Amino acid sequence: MRSSEAPIWIPAGLDAGAGQGSRTDRPQQHADSNMKDKDRGETETTELRRIIRRGSSDVVTMERARDIANCRRREVTLVLKTFHTLKTQLDISSTGATNSTSTAIYNLHTQSDTMAGTGAGGFSTIAIIGAGSVGCTIAHTLMLRRVCAEVRLVDIAEDLCRAQVQDLQDATYLTNVRIKYATPQEAGQSDIIVITAGAKQKPGETRLDLIEKNYKVLGSVLKGLQPINPQSIILLVANPVDVLTHFAQQMSGLPKNQVLGSGTLLDSIRLRGLLAQRLEVCIPEIEDSIKGRPVNIVLQISDNSINAYVIGEHGDSQCVAWSSVTVSGAHISVIDEISDEDRTKIGKLVSGKANAIIRAKGFTSYGIGATAANICEAILFDQRPVYPLSCWHEEYQCCISLPAVVGRKGIVSQIPLPLNDKEKAQIEASAKTLREQIAKF
Ligand SMILES: NC(=O)c1ccc[n+]([C@@H]2O[C@H](COP(=O)([O-])OP(=O)(O)OC[C@H]3O[C@@H](n4cnc5c(N)ncnc54)[C@H](O)[C@@H]3O)[C@@H](O)[C@H]2O)c1
Description:
The protein is an alpha/beta fold. The chain folds into three domains: about 30-115; about 125-260, Rossmann fold (3-Layer(aba) Sandwich); about 265-440, L-2-Hydroxyisocaproate Dehydrogenase, Chain A, domain 2, CATH 3.90.110. Helix content is about 40%, strand content about 15%. It contains 15 helices and 17 strands. The chain has helices at about 35-55, 60-70, 75-90, 100-110, 135-145, 160-170, 185, 210-225, 240-250, 265-280, 335, 340-350, 355-360, 365-380, 420-440; strands at about 125-130, 150-155, 180, 190-195, 235, 260, 280, 285-290, 295, 300, 305, 310, 320, 325, 385-395, 400-405, 410-415. It has a six-stranded parallel beta sheet, with helices on both faces. The protein has a three-stranded antiparallel beta sheet with strand order 15-16-17. A two-stranded antiparallel ribbon has the order 7-10. Helix 1 crosses helix 3 and helix 5 (about 135-145) crosses helix 14 (about 365-380). Nicotinamide-adenine-dinucleotide (NAD) binds near residues 160, 200 and 221. Nicotinamide-adenine-dinucleotide (NAD) binds near residues 131, 200, 214 and 262.
């Protein structure tokens, strides 16, 4: 367990200011202090690879990682993460599998402009505004996945926030990720600022019902964060997420691509889970090569292999882009054969899932915790996955979810999704609902 205030043990050879101040103010410099970040990253990666190949992986302790990279105490988690990723990559290289994360982490160490640590102190930081159920679950997931070096928690309810930090600190022994109570100004200097502050739905309420309260909360949150680090990415999670993303783009002073909402990523994951559970994909055309007769192979497919998007509002007007559902890129007849009636039922199950959970337990948190942490990881490590996130769409004149590429600069590009006429009408109607809400303010 470690807190931001707790004294830290400094090994011989490292200055007492390690972890305080900027990357350039260390009196004790490594022999390769004149090396460029790229060269240092390559040296580090090569050294880590050599250790793994020698089979002495178990001896790579925190201290070893620190020596290898000559990095600051708070960056050690990133070195260890590189180590683990390289190890996984080398372990699976004989099977021909690749690991895109290792490339992203390598880039993280070697590209100064995409490097985590643009925040004060030269290490990666994620601030979470709102230390309620959702905010703390995101913090916990970020810590367990070692997405960043430090998580900063902020809440208007100071006692609650300090207690949440204390509780989360008890989990840091698993991860070595620092968690601290922060002021709004400190949060404003973070690499990513996740906004979960605000009222949540009561049973039967829609997300749009929250707009009056949460518009005000958003205004006060963004005011408190100023001056916001111009490199920060703001991720909206509080609802109604699309409308709040629109207002955050207007109020934050950041470029629009740096302000995005979690949108319908969670809904799309719910949809993929449902399809994976329900579909047994028969491929009668595959022949048993030994006996020369056709067989039915029933595949139970991982939801990760199903490409299916919920698009539009993260709310009641969302729709499923049925015409573009594929299994690993292939259109399969089983999907085409789902009747209109069943498609409507599946769509309702997806859009109504949050309310069903809220009726029983009062809130949802694990799904959004996982998806928000996943988006943060994609941003910090410049992974560039295609996710349906809420961002500005010129065509619809609002923030709405359609597939977009997410990386260190936020929304990197938007991917056009082929839609049939029915889907086009549905997303236009969804955008109209959002524009009407925005027009009220
Ligand atoms: N986008 C999604 O998929 C998704 C999923 C689940 C929940 N949510 C939304 O997330 C939000 C939070 O939900 P929750 O369950 O954590 O609610 P919660 O009530 O448990 O937590 C909200 C926290 O925000 C804090 N807060 C309020 N005003 C603040 C301010 N001005 N500054 C700082 N903190 C402030 C409160 O003190 C509280 O601790 C809700 O709007 C909810 O609808 C979104």
